[in-house]
């Protein structure tokens, strides 16, 4: 998969807390937190959240023929904003502080992903 993608995502905005690539099995295969940031969820809860996010994306992609391609999902909580992007058979999960401009982050991540696709790859 794309090397150092998560590091590049984290550098896009100081309000990004975390960026991680989750594979089709719901496992984080690359990623990390912004320096000095602590996770809000423990191991099992965090894993369950990734599996649920992956399941949501897989479900929404099933409607692509009728609605068009799924591009991203934004979920806002009191303590964190979660952005989820399809990435091959998995997803890119990004979390940001609630004061972050989620539309700005979404646009920057989408542009990075668009520029990150290898030539001849299928649209995800």
Whole-number mean pLDDT:
89
H/E order of the elements?
HEEHHEEEH
β-sheet strand percentage: 25-35%
Figure out the total of helices. Answer: 4
CATH architecture designation: 2-Layer Sandwich
Total strands: the figure is 5
Low-confidence segments, ≥5 residues, pLDDT <50? 118-124
CATH class assignment = Alpha Beta
The description of the largest β-sheet is:
5 strands, antiparallel
Q: What value does the Rg take, in angstroms?
A: 14 Å
Distance between the termini: 13 Å
At the fourth level of CATH, the homologous superfamily is Dynein light chain 2a, cytoplasmic
- Strands ordered across the widest β-sheet: 2-1-5-4-3
Number of structural domains: 1
Q: How do the strands and helices of this protein lay out in sequence?
A:
Blueprint (H helix, E strand, L loop, with lengths): L4 H6 L5 E7 L5 E6 L9 H19 L2 H4 L5 E4 L4 E7 L2 E7 L5 H15 L8
Antiparallel strand pairs: 1-2, 1-5, 3-4, 4-5
InterPro entries: DUF6659 (IPR046600)
Pfam families: DUF6659
Protein name: Roadblock/LAMTOR2 domain-containing protein
